[in-house]
Amino acid sequence: MKIQLLDYAGILPAMTAMRNPMNSWDRNDTQIDFKEMRIKVGSADKGLSEKLQKAGPEHAKHLRMIMVWADINAPRYWWNEFDTYRAGVEKVSCSTMHKLMSRELTTDDFETDAKHSYALLSAVHEINVRIGRYHSEEDPEAKKAIWREIIQILPQSYIQKRTAMMSYAALRNIYRQREGHKLKEWQEFREWCESLPESWMITE
Which CATH number goes with the domain that contains 78? Predict the structure, then answer.
């Protein structure tokens, strides 16, 4: 599993917006650190943010305004669980339908601790045989049948890339819910959350 941060935005306006209900903008102390070229949340804003988070997600609406974009390469069995999260999450994936047949697969296309296991090697071989048949077949209906067969036998460990946009509110929810999960990919995702700017808004 690989996660690459592409961009993030919204910390500064979120810190301003959370003060709207009490008109307390004069206490806003979040600033731009031009040396490090990043937003630095001040102690007063951090204190208010923490207070709102403790009051519940309906009060911590400012976290919904902070967004991150990331490229995530993960196995299909992990994506099946990640798809549980809808609020504050958008995803654009590489197309299995259009790109799976573009080349033969290797064991590097799968998330596995046993790249030389007979089961995986056998599955890759069977898929590649069908990819060859797919490219040599001229009948459209026969090609469709071969593609369908490949999709049906494709292991859940097949790695798919998606570009995801997620709010800090969504990440906070995921971080809490996936603590101690038996899939190591969730622990890797939680560690990535800890590396984000002002990650205390997600992890504390």
Answer: 3.30.1360.170
